[in-house]
Hints:
By secondary structure, the chain is mainly alpha-helical. About 55% of the residues lie in helices and about 10% in strands. It comes from Enteroscipio rubneri.
Amino acid sequence: MPVVWRLDRIMAKYEISLKQLADRVGITQVNLSRIKTGKSTAARFSTLGALCEALDCQPGDLLEYIPDASFNK
């Protein structure tokens, strides 16, 4: 998948726990963990917006595009 979550990096940067962030965003720890570990293949824009607000960041801080050689063939 060419777009991946980098939530783990920004959580480490701000030294925030999964529980603290889940409480701030208003989603379950299980769903947030799925996003953090890359097991989630989709997220609502409202969730992305809530994460950006809670972490004072931009969507580009949470997501990264990784080119896939087979994707461009």
